[in-house]
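Blinded run. Sample ID left blank on purpose so nobody reads anything into the name before looking at the predicted structure. Input follows.
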Amino acid sequence: MSDYHCFEQGGGTYLFFSRSAKLYQVSPLAARLIREFLPEEPAAALPAPGTPPPPWLCSEEAALYRELVELFGRELAVPLPAPHQQDAAPGENNFQTFSIYLAQTCNMACCYCWNRGGTFGKPGHLMGRPTARRATQLIVSLVERSSAERIFINFYGGEPLLDFPVLQQIARELLKHEPRLGKNFHLTLDTNGTLLEGHAAQYLARYFTQVGVSLDGSQRIHDLQRPGKYGEETWQRIVNNIRSFPNPKLLGIRATLTTFSDSYLETFLHLTTLGVGRIQLEYCHEPGYRQNPIYEKLIVPPQRQLAELREFVDYYVDYIASYKSTRDIPFVSNLLDSINRIRRANRFTRPCGAGTNTLAINSHGEVFPCIAFVERDDFAMGQTGHDSLSLHRTLQGFEVDSQLPCQTCWLRYDCAGGCYATHYDMTGHPRQPHPEYCQNMRGRAEVYFYALTRILTRCPWHLDG
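Blinded prediction complete.
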């Protein structure tokens, strides 16, 4: 079991302890002594506190050696995080997030779409009113017994606005139950933005709490990667809809980066010109890609990803450090969410609540653990209109300290085992991560640790916001 990690990033050397989530920046001499006397191998025997330093070390090295041995002794005596307690009280459940595949069809033909426009290679389909009614009844019945006070309902696809009247039906029915249930429903939408206009835009601006729009940066890159269903350009139409949306504070932009894209930083700079406060940049990644070799050509090589992330962090920190208030600076949501999660030092022993606090309902009314498992028939949990839901056995009882290869990884309480659905797509088993996945997760974590130290040193108020 490896409970610490020493690494170099951005010209500095850092030491991270898995159990306590403490991060130290160390000197080159300390880094050398750690590599020589305190190796990371899980089976390595570490010197006990009070162990005298080797006689060949000079006085400065010997003093630092004693400090390091004491530090490691304290940190490795920290208890392991307690197993995750997820069982609900009798008659209750923990469901909080529901995703609705409203439209399993799309009016665009994005080159990297992992679920093939929501169709998963099957005939396209809209949910329709009868299925929507059953889906709403299921959600309400589960929320009635849920321990959560805030309930998140995400409309997904395909393009969910293709079924806008049914979206209204579901939203109206759920909001009607808020007073009786004593819950707060937060309605969110993921859209390609082409239909974000007119009455639909007005309705979303009034009743929804967040609207995510996909836009891949510059017009040249976006129109290359995200054409319409018949090859038409879409960038200008989406940008017009973003600029005319009645409540811009609700909007966030999500860009997907491929091998054809501009860099992470260049894409960010393009998107900042649109006046949106929340930006999410993601490299196209693993789900579904192993099933189609064309997708493999779109995945940005990991080393390029890490180099671009470091370049962005250096630019971003230098930029915001010159301000005393950063309310008007776009919030890079996925990056800063990861950094803040590290800063909070929460330890996780399970990756998510797929099937226990999240559910997804497809347009036919079938229920799955999350949006990434939709149409994976082995993981179907049941059907709307029926009483019982059954979670696949491989998604039950996971604990990272008892799972290979996770139990020997220094990042295990931050990654917590990773995404079940991604593992299933890459290796055929939801509990077996692919080595490339793990390597990429660890590489990104090192960049996030580096980013955290830079922000805390130069502009800590940005995280407080």
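Unblinding after everyone has recorded impressions. The mean pLDDT is 91.
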